[in-house]
Amino acid sequence: MRESRWNHYRVWKPLGLAVLAALTPPEWEITIFDENIRARDYGALPRPDLVGITAFTSQANRAYEVAAEFRSRGVPVVMGGIHATMRTEEAQARVDAVVTGEAEHIWAQVLLDVRQGALKPLYAGAHANMAEIPPARHDLLTGDYACGAIQTTRGCPLSCSFCSVTAFNGHRYRQRPIADVVREFGAIREKYVLIVDDNLIGTRPEHIARAKDLFRAMIRAKLRKQWIAQTTINMADDEELLTLAAQAGCTGVFIGFESLTAEGLRALGGKRHILEGRDVADSVRRIQRHKILVAGSFILGLDTDEPGIGRRIAAAAIRYGMDFLNTLFLTPLPGTRLWDEMESQGCVVANTFPEDWKYYTLTFPVARYRQFSCGDILREMETCDGVFYSRWNILRRLWRSLWQRRKPLIALLGGLSYRRNFSFSRQACREFLSSRAPAQTS
Ligand code: B12
Ligand code: SF4
Please, are residues 294 and 323 in contact by the beta-carbon 8 Å criterion? Predict the structure, then answer.
């Protein structure tokens, strides 16, 4: 698929591999290749002793190709991360060993077994003790990255039906010791940082108290970083939290709003209680008053969505005053409750695996949706993006962020980048649909 050149500024670091590198004893020499930056001619490289691969579901095919290439040269290949964990047997058929779950407890054993020529086909990881997560090897990820990356928490108690985080990292919200986070933050070269946590502040009073302590420690350490993070909308409810976050360098938050209706939120479970009955426009404004940009995401294709939903989502996001909108197709990712439901109802349409995993980017209508044909849901998405990212609306948001002195350049470049990407990804969707069932695209 062609991509916008602005994507250069949205290439984020593969933190999982940098953490794995940090868990690796010093006698191993490590190189990390990130194919999000560019693919390599692996044949031209010196033969390694071991290859470790990580992949999201959407990257699984390419991961298997890379594995095949190295295995054909007799190099053992280990695969870990979300896809290998959720589709263990599929991965096991294509690599020498699979590590499921978090690797902190098990990676040293894998390496020992490699050295002894006794690699096992399966290693089960376990939820890590957060005090034992070493600082990631940021030094190994040099090159074309716009942002550094860091993780401060793992796990989520909310267990939304479409999300794999609770299945992978568990229900318990686990937090790294604040001193470790601040030290690692200080070691990141980049001025701009993505905090990869699924919810930086958490939902319970003790989570929020810890977030405040973290922000206070970051302010005291004078890190001078600017960072963005994922959070839930309850961030807007605590003025002290917002003040501390902004002082600690927060410039933007990404919030999942998921559905406009109570029925939609009920179907998705999870964070319903945080969203239902809320004055979202007021919450967004309260966050923005601290000069923090708000990106919101919605899901398209719920059973409760009715025709016209694309325009309604765009209109709501404009009314709420969001700076960016990311609307994604309802996608059954392996290992989620949504997968179980849609699979059992025969609604997973792109189901020639592993080939079809490449469509599991949430930007392709891979399922059968109750209220929409494939062509209809694509048109809903086009309307949604087209309205929110019209030139006029991008200019309006630019004007507003200039007026509020809230990162106007980011508002403009971000808006143009989203707009450009959507046109590429809609084209890819059309090709996807016409390659499958030409009649369905009408
Ligand atoms: C940061 C992030 C991103 C970044 C990725 C940056 C990068 N280059 O990696 C960006 C914003 C680009 C992104 C994009 C997408 N993401 Co994302 N992302 C995340 C997030 C929030 C954190 C990932 C992370 O860095 N974790 C921290 C590291 C330390 O943990 P880890 O990667 O799990 O690694 C540990 C273990 O897994 C293991 N491990 C990992 N790899 C390996 C390899 C080996 C060999 C071994 C032994 C062990 C091992 O060891 C590590 C230490 O324990 C996760 C949620 C999550 N909690 O993981 C979602 C998540 C991975 N994303 C998800 C999705 C769906 C996407 C998108 C498809 C859609 C979207 N719009 O978000 C796109 C995909 C883009 C693409 N190219 O295909 C899903 C993936 C589900 C799936 N089955 O694939 C997740 C799980 C979120 C969710 N809601 O379910 N994402
Ligand atoms: S709140 Fe976020 S991280 Fe937690 S389960 Fe829901 S979508 Fe996933």
Answer: yes
